[in-house]
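Intended use. Records like the one below are meant for learning the mapping from a protein sequence to its folded structure. Do not use them to infer anything beyond what is encoded.
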Amino acid sequence: MNYTIKKTSWKEDKQALSQIRKNVFIEEQNVPEALEWDEFDDKCIHILITQNTSPVACGRIKPDGHIGRMAVLKEHRRAGIGTAILNELLESAKQNKNTKVYLHAQTSAIAFYEKLGFNISSEEFMDANIPHRTMEKRLNSTTMK
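Structure written out for the chain above:
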């Protein structure tokens, strides 16, 4: 499959980004809509992945290195898209001179993040009625640009 990865902003691609998140989080995972939207989208770097111009996946990173809102439409999972998003977000963190990144992983996704070098750093907690754990990754300063 042919995918396009784009580093973007909320202002530029709000419609595509919000549609993916609505499909995955609100409709599929039953996250209350009020919990999905926050004041941070305008301040984040977003990654948008499309296939033939159709939005299929997204993720964001806050200036402090908090990765979140990673979502891949169900029919595009297990194709390496999540890894591609995460790699782009990690590159953005390095460009932003972050020395560490962190995220709140759904417990079902912990193994995915561990394969990519993240370590669990909290006990389990509930967020939007879904069990999560905080995970973090130190960024190698020698690879920073």
